[in-house]
Amino acid sequence: MRLDKFLCETVGVTRTQAARLLKEKRITLDGNIVKSGAIKIAEDADVEFDGAALKLSGPRYFMMNKPEGYVCSHEDASNPTVFVLLEEVNAEKLHIAGRLDCDTTGLLLLTDDGQWSHRVTSPKHKCDKTYRVWLDDPIEDDVAEQFAEGIMLRGEDAETLPAQMTVVGEKEVLLTIHEGKYHQVKRMFAAVGNRVVGLHRETVGALVLDEALEPGEYRLLTADEVAQFMPSK
Q: Angle at the Cα of 176 (from 173 to 178), degrees rounded to 5?
């Protein structure tokens, strides 16, 4: 494949724009600056654009430790979006598999594989999500039982699916839910007369947030982590 065609497909530019990038010495091949778009390269060539690796191969899967104050959308008039934290080529082609509120932190998954994200988010797959929840008031003794039986949320026509709650402290719990209704965790506690003051997602399915990731940091998922959400063969 010609280098300029490779740039068009990976960076999303025209041939003219690709030529400009090469002229500006922003493209390297195997660590060396190249200026000619006519160079033939293999699809697995080591090509970088402003230091970011370019690859044609397959969809991408990322785990991020979402910080507070960032929204899970590509654009927002009031808050920065999580996509500004990504140092990836064509980051605009990624989407979020299971959004978090602006003030919620923790495990966030991003991909450009629509079928994969559907398996993460679709209620029919019942993918568990575990949250660490901090509350305004102490936990009442019967809340875990109410959540396990399912509760009715305002504006819904059916009870929530059974959820599992473990008390960690007087005002702190771990809650595992199997669906993703709008603001579900906050609405569940509001329904039992309490208020969520802090919310952090720790797991999605069997995938656990990498403790090495500081807020705002991210990494590629391993092949085994990606496969957790793939259908069994």
A: 155
Question: Known catalytic residues?
Answer: 101
Q: How far is CA 131 from CA 106, 197, 201, 208, 210, in A?
A: 9, 13, 4, 11, 15
- The dihedral over CA atoms of 53, 56, 57, 60, expressed in degrees to the nearest 10, equals 60
Task: Give bridge partners of residue 176 from the DSSP assignment.
Answer: 130, 164
Q: Are 184 and 37 in contact (CB under 8 A)?
A: no
* pLDDT tens readout for residues 42-100: 767 889 999 988 876 668 899 999 999 999 999 999 999 999 999 887 788 899 999 99
CA distances from residue 181 to 36, 127, 159, 187 in whole angstroms, order as listed:
52, 13, 11, 9
Give the C-alpha distances (Å, rounded to integers) separating 27 from 3, 50, 52, 152. 10, 7, 9, 56
| pTM for the whole structure | 0.78
Paired tokens of 39: 């160079």
Give the separation between CA 180 and CA 184, rounded to whole angstroms.
Answer: 7
C-alpha distances out from residue 74 to 49, 83, 93, Å: 22, 6, 10
